Structures are given as structure tokens and as C-alpha cells.
């Protein structure tokens, strides 16, 4: 990415633009670059900020979705941010949900894309063949509708990560925490506007998951992205950004 990672007071993040704040939350295996085309689209009208979630830095005994939500709370207070729009993919959406339930006063609106929190069909409880590059390539391709979206650079990054013993233990710990933390009974507490932007071909958090979120979130809209898997902002960025822009225009005019 062309954006510099800022490091201060124990936080790492990317920041661009001015105006209403959009906080972009990456997934478990997500990179900041996943959001590059979102930043490019919105930085001229909005204050866009991406905190790096400390999956590899928090004490492993406390690592979980709630710990990341607490980290987000500390980060927003550090940056003196309020009434932000949280935009979360996969685990990032789950963190956004947990945070919003606990601190709805900080959040103007919520955007979820391929979010965990109800059900996900990810790597499962282990990486049985993490030494096999072809196996990891197949798993990364599973994330997308078009396997070509899983570039060699992306597969290389995931392969390197899952073959780092310290990191893979944390990834599995985090994944198990997400599976345990089912939010179905808490979603009715979220009364702010929520936009669900979902890949019609998502195999990780299938369309049924989006429909259930839509049913359980009282003030939600559901937008489908055709020929798209688990990361619409990467695979169909123009469609994703169009949906996001319409939602922002609507909620911010109120």
C-alpha cells in the first residue's frame, strides 16, 4: 500500500482524509491492503482510518473477540473519535458487532460484509496440511468466487503466516473465540442503521447468514453482490463502494 502505517501509544493504523470517520476493520487473515480501493474511493469526502487489530500482540490467554473490541474502544478514545461508521469484513465485522453492543453511543452506523458472529465455514479447528503450498492456495481460493482473485502475493502471505508457529496458534485461538461467541441473542440491541453488503457466492459466511443477520438486526438493509465471495471490497470493489456510498449518503443526511 502507498499509505504509511502510523505507530503511536501502542497503536498501529493507517489514516487518510477528513470529515465523517469511517473505521475499517480487517478480518482474521486480512491485510490493510484489502481496503485499498475503499480508501481511494472515500478519502476525498471522509476521514478513513484502519486500525491494525493486535491479533499477534495481545496476551494469548486473553485473546478473543471481546479483547479486540476492548482494543477498539481504547483506540477510538485515544483518537478522540465518536459517532463513527464501523465497516467490518469477516472477523472485523464480528468485532464491530461486539463493540456496538457494548458501546452503541460511539457508533453512527455499522456496515458488515462477510461478517462472522452467527456462523462461518472457515479453516476449521486446524491447518492439517499447512506445509503444503497447494493446500493453502486452495483454501485461499475458497474465499473468493473467482480463484484468480487469490493472487500469488496473497497466497504467499497466508502461507508464511500459517507456517509461523506462534502466529498459527493465535489464529486458531482467535477463530475458536469467534465460533464460541455467537451473537444471535444480542443483535436486537443494535438499533443504529446497519448495511449488510454480501457476496452471493460467499462460501465462508453463506447467504443464509446474511439473511439471518438481516432478520435479527432491527434497522438493517441487505445488499447482494453477484459473482462474489467472502470479501466484496476486494473482489467487486466498485459494487461494494457504490452500496457503501448510497448507505452513507442516506444515513448522514438524517
From TrEMBL:
Keyword check for Hydrolase, yes or no: yes
What the entry lists under InterPro entries is as follows: AB_hydrolase_1, AB_hydrolase_fold
GO MF terms listed in the record are: hydrolase activity
Sorted UniProt keywords: Hydrolase
Taxonomy, superkingdom: Bacteria
One Pfam family here: Abhydrolase_6
Task: Indicate yes or no for the key word Isomerase.
Answer: no
- Describe the location of the AB hydrolase-1 domain by residue ranges: 22-242
- Please report the name of this protein according to its UniProt entry: Alpha/beta hydrolase
Amino acid at each position: 500500500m502507498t499509505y504509511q502505517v502510523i505507530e503511536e501509544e501502542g497503536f498501529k493504523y493507517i489514516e487518510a482524509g477528513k470529515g465523517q470517520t469511517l473505521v475499517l476493520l480487517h478480518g482474521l487473515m486480512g491485510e490493510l491492503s484489502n481496503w485499498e480501493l475503499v480508501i481511494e474511493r472515500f478519502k476525498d469526502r471522509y476521514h478513513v482510518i484502519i486500525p491494525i487489530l493486535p491479533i499477534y500482540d495481545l496476551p494469548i490467554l486473553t485473546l478473543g473477540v471481546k479483547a479486540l473490541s476492548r482494543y477498539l474502544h481504547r483506540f477510538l478514545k485515544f483518537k478522540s473519535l465518536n459517532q463513527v461508521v464501523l465497516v467490518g469484513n469477516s472477523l472485523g465485522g464480528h468485532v464491530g458487532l461486539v463493540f456496538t453492543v457494548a458501546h452503541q453511543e460511539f457508533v453512527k452506523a455499522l456496515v458488515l460484509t462477510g461478517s462472522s458472529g452467527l456462523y462461518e465455514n472457515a479453516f476449521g479447528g486446524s491447518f492439517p496440511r499447512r506445509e503444503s503450498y497447494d493446500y493453502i492456495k486452495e483454501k485461499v481460493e475458497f474465499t473468493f468466487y473467482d480463484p484468480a482473485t487469490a493472487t500469488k502475493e496473497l497466497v504467499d502471505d497466508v502461507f508464511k503466516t500459517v507456517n509461523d508457529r506462534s502466529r498459527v496458534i493465535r489464529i486458531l485461538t482467535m477463530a475458536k473465540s469467534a465460533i464460541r461467541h455467537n451473537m444471535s441473542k444480542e443483535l436486537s440491541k443494535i438499533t443504529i442503521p446497519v448495511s449488510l453488503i454480501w457476496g452471493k457466492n460467499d462460501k465462508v459466511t453463506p447467504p443464509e447468514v446474511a439473511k439471518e443477520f438481516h432478520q435479527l438486526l432491527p434497522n438493517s438493509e441487505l445488499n447482494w453482490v453477484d459473482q462474489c465471495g467472502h470479501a466484496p471490497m476486494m473482489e467487486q470493489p466498485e459494487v461494494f463502494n457504490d452500496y457503501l456510498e448510497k448507505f452513507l449518503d442516506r444515513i448522514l443526511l438524517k
